[in-house]
């Protein structure tokens, strides 16, 4: 696929969105920013739209004329089901409807490892977790990412909108926990992966895991590499300090036993 020039970046004020505002323009993209919070356009951005995903008129206007969409918007952790429903489930539906109405044919959807969070993490000698492992969401948040992947499949089959769903691990400048040593996605590798997903010669719906080439990797990066992704970073330089501070993961600890970590053990967020 030719590199899209104008990309709508939703969730531009969020953690990953803020990083991508600086890292994606060098790949040749003009970014159109979208977030419920005000975002300065800055270098590499053609403009910014301040609106909620529930504002379907504003969303459609933001989608109009773009070549592709990088959909990072939504709640990025656990919350009440009502808030997850509105932001992540209904919001993603509104985004896909706007893309359909405006004829956009490529979306990169920020899924999450929490769509398969209750999958047991591999131990020494175990095979890496494949992308076709059964989905086992660990939270309402993870459930919303399962919905997003299914919605992407529906719009690919029915409307011909191609989506790459990236099950992001933990995209921060540096890993913060021992668990993150296995799922860390450096910001630079995140930009490399999103660029590959935006330009790969794939049709339909493709699911990949999103992390750097970590020594302690838990999942199979083969499908992401097939898009043209070439990760350059590894979390291992941060390992000694984190292990000294927090200790190695304990397979007997329920918070360490599964891919989703503490998301699998924290109580669900209930309505107040």
Structural features, described:
The chain is an alpha/beta fold and 272 residues long. The chain has a single domain (6-264), classed as NAD(P)-binding Rossmann-like Domain (Rossmann fold), CATH 3.40.50. The protein is 34% helix and 15% strand. It is built from nine helices and seven strands, in the order E-H-E-E-H-E-H-E-H-E-H-H-E-H-H-H. The chain has helices at residues 15-23, 56-63, 81-102, 140-159, 180-183, 187-199, 222-226, 239-246, 254-257, and strands at 6-10, 30-35, 45-50, 68-71, 106-112, 162-168, 205-210. It has a seven-stranded parallel β-sheet with strand order 3-2-1-4-5-6-7, sandwiched between helices. Helix 2 packs across helix 3 and helix 3 (81-102) packs parallel to helix 4. The longest helix is centred in the middle third of the chain and has 22 residues, at 81-102.
How would you summarize this macromolecular structure in one to three sentences?
By secondary structure, this protein is an alpha/beta fold. It is built from 9 helices and 7 strands. Helix 4 links the parallel strand 5 and strand 6.
- SSE order, as H and E? EHEEHEHEHEHHEHHH
Number of domains: 1
Mean pLDDT: 95
Roughly what percent helix? 25-40%
Q: Please identify the top-level CATH class.
A: Alpha Beta
CATH topology (fold) name: Rossmann fold
Low-confidence stretches: none
Shape assignment: globular
What is the CATH architecture assignment?
3-Layer(aba) Sandwich
| Strand portion | 15-25%
Assembly type of the shown chains? single chain
- Gap between N and C termini, in Å? 47 Å
Order of strands across the main sheet? 3-2-1-4-5-6-7
Tally of alpha and pi helices: 9
User: How large is the radius of gyration?
Assistant: 18 Å
């Amino acid at each position: 696929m030719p590199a899209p020039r104008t990309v709508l970046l939703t969730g531009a004020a969020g953690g990953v969105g803020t990083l991508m505002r600086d890292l994606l323009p060098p790949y040749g993209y003009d970014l159109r920013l979208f977030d419920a919070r005000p975002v300065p356009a800055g270098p590499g951005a053609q403009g910014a739209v301040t609106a909620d995903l529930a504002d379907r008129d504003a969303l459609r206007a933001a989608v109009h004329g773009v070549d592709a969409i990088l959909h990072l918007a939504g709640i990025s952790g656990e919350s009440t089901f009502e808030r997850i429903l509105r932001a992540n489930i209904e919001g993603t539906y509104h985004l896909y409807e706007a893309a359909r109405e405006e004829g956009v044919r490529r979306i990169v959807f920020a899924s999450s490892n929490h769509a398969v969070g209750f999958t047991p993490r591999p131990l020494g000698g175990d095979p890496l977790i494949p992308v076709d492992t059964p989905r086992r969401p660990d939270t309402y948040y993870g459930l919303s990412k399962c919905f997003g992947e299914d919605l992407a499949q529906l719009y690919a089959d029915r409307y011909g909108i191609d989506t790459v769903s990236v099950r992001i691990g933990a995209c921060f400048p540096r890993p913060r926990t021992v668990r993150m040593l296995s799922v860390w996605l450096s910001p630079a590798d995140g930009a490399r992966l999103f660029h590959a997903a935006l330009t790969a010669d794939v049709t339909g719906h493709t699911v990949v895991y999103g992390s750097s080439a970590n020594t302690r990797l838990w999942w199979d990066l083969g499908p992401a590499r097939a898009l043209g992704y070439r990760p350059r970073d590894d979390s291992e330089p941060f390992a000694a300090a984190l292990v000294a501070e927090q200790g190695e993961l304990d397979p007997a600890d329920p918070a360490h036993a599964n891919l989703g970590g503490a998301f699998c053990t924290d109580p669900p967020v209930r309505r107040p």
